[in-house]
Write a structure and sequence with these properties.
Helix content: 10-25%
Radius of gyration: 20 Å
Shape: globular
CATH architecture of the domain at 10-69 and 97-107 and 122-177: 3-Layer(aba) Sandwich
CATH superfamily of the domain at 10-69 and 97-107 and 122-177: VC0467-like
Strand order of the largest sheet: 4-3-2-1-5
Distance between the termini: 21 Å
CATH class of the domain at 10-69 and 97-107 and 122-177: Alpha Beta
Largest sheet: 5 strands, antiparallel
Structural class: alpha+beta
CATH topology of the domain at 10-69 and 97-107 and 122-177: VC0467-like
Number of strands: 5
Strand content: 5-15%
Number of helices: 5
Length: 185
């Protein structure tokens, strides 16, 4: 078996004709890749139908939805308070940082830098893609995937439907010239 370097913090790009419709033209941010297996997040596809009550139920969160009030637009002061509360919440959660898959000394991934400032960009992903030990390495050897550096532009700043082609182009390949056929010379 080929010994691959860790792909943690990199992008995994599905090759045309990967043979699994769930991954067709997928861009996966690799959160973990080691001898124990791999885990990543698809960052270029959205759920077709997702309802907040269903999500809360899956997360085991009891939820009631109060009306809140009769005003259609929140006043500036209320919006500022909500933003501040969300900011505090984001600082309390621990997530992986782009390009820095190492945990803090307590084994957690911190969204805050040393000054206490949270990330400028964020991404919420539901679910994950996982590989058993050696599975991803076999798929790489069978030409199912390409790898590319993870960049903020691809992860956060461009429309989802443009991310695969942009990531492929970032490694010098014209995505229009790719084919599902493989072979050996």
């Amino acid at each position: 078996m080929i010994d691959y370097p860790s792909l943690s913090g990199q992008l995994l790009l599905a090759m045309p004709g990967i043979g699994d419709g769930r991954f067709e033209r997928s861009v996966i941010y690799m959160c973990q890749h080691s001898a124990e297996g791999a885990m990543g997040l698809i960052v270029n596809k959205r759920f077709q139908s997702l309802k907040l009550p269903d999500l809360m139920s899956q997360l085991d969160i009891r939820m009631t939805t109060p009306r809140g009030g009769c005003a259609r637009r929140w006043p500036r002061r209320a919006r500022a308070r909500v933003r501040a509360a969300l900011d505090r919440l984001s600082r309390a959660r621990h997530v992986g940082r782009l390009g820095d898959p190492r945990p803090d000394p307590h084994g957690r991934y911190s969204a805050c830098d040393r000054r206490g400032a949270g990330p400028h960009d964020s991404l919420i992903a539901l679910g994950y893609s996982g590989w058993a030990p050696g599975q991803l390495e076999r798929e790489l050897g069978q030409h199912g995937w390409l790898t590319a550096p993870a960049t903020p532009d691809v992860l956060f700043h461009m429309p989802l439907e443009e991310r695969w082609a942009a990531a492929v182009a970032s490694i010098g390949i014209d995505p229009r010239l790719m084919t599902a056929e493989t072979g050996n010379a």
